[in-house]
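FORM 7B: Structural annotation worksheet

SECTION A. Query
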Amino acid sequence: MAPVGIRVLLVEDNPLHAHLLQGFLKELGHPPFPVHWVTSLEEGLKVAGEEDFEVVLLDLVLPDSQGLETFLRWKSAAPQLPVVVLTGLDDMELATRAVENGAQDYLIKNQINRALLSRSLRYTAERTGAGGREWDCPVLRAAHQQFLQAAEYVELSPELQERWLFPKRSHVFSLPFRRDDGSGVENIFAYRVSHITSQGPLLANCELQANLALGELAARAMNMSWQSALFGFPFAGVQGGIRVDPRGVTESEKEQLEELYREELSDLSTSKQDIFFDRESEESIEEAAGAGLGILIEAGASQLDLDLQGATAVILGVGTRARATARFLKDKGVRIVGMGEAPDKEELLQKPCDIMVIHEKNLRLTSWDVNLINCRLLAEGVNDSITPEHDQSLEQRGILVLPDILGGGGFLIESHRQWKEGSNERERTDQILEQMLISVFERVQARSQKEKLTLRQGALCEALEALQRRSDGGSFF
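SECTION B. Predicted structure
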């Protein structure tokens, strides 16, 4: 009988590294990791075609292939097999590019230990195994990487690491949708993903997005959990979405889909916890999110000794949040020298400026994009636009990154205020925004400077510690 466990194909030409990895895998008892070792890309592809494996450990520098080409050749020949790449400390950019092109994870050879190796292989198998394909997406892989990294910093218990890596539950709905032109009924798929549900009420937000997948929503739900904990709010980590191109539906069709989605939510056991806002309140919340990012930009600029009067800014995005940030910055004397959407991305990214603002939803920058950026401060107003590796690259170039976990704070602050007070008074909003955002920013910045972390790492560490305190050593799911 074949051994039960996660079968690993190790493609590594250095016998010392190979024996070390095999030793680690042999010592791991549960689950077992039976391993097959080969020393070249050609031999690896041959064995992969003859035997079954769950994960491939692939060195990018082999006798018959070098660099990113190694991964791309593997992906082309055996796309069904998930890959964890092996790299040296001096090849971090190469590893990042491999992940951007579809690798599940990367491991730095001189930093590998048993726990790190086991965790990377197990979670890769969980994401991509039978029933897990919906979770396999770059956004969730990046969310997992930054969570696990922060979990090590704060010594989060293994039980909570395991529990918080994936959502507690997810739902898939089929919405019977009729278009305005009467062309018949079609089924539109919608999702609801709940990461940590015991924190409190659920913001019943729902976005329309083409090619939406559970993995993306899982990453956003995780981020909602971290943000809520960071800012001290009781909201659960929940995200919802409808898989449809928003450009292909009319306003009335959008309202119809949202109503159908709410009807489906009403059948869930958690429906009494759901918080809904009307269109006017939603617009006010979006404006607060944009203004909140402006407040954080002002705080970040102060740390850089950057005078906003006469400074220049480029904004990627044209929606309500982007316009609100632009108004805030203009009021402070900033000149907006570029503003647009994804089709203009490359032109905007390489435009010299003091401040770069990202408000374009579903815009994910590659290493190439990041290398184009020419600013002093980069503010992330939406989730998932840059990776933790990009943070480090930008930091090395002297660019301060205000990450999404901080940048989205205005959304949560105004959502909480309206839920509690039932009004959307702008004067009251501005007062609370500045007080809370500056307080959290200063706390995160102090920790980041003390422990030599990026702001993203520092914020996530603060959030995880807050959640761990709430768990009080017991079950917190």
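SECTION C. Observations
The mean pLDDT is 87. Residues 426-451 form the longest helix (26 residues).

SECTION D. Sign-off
Analyst initials: ____
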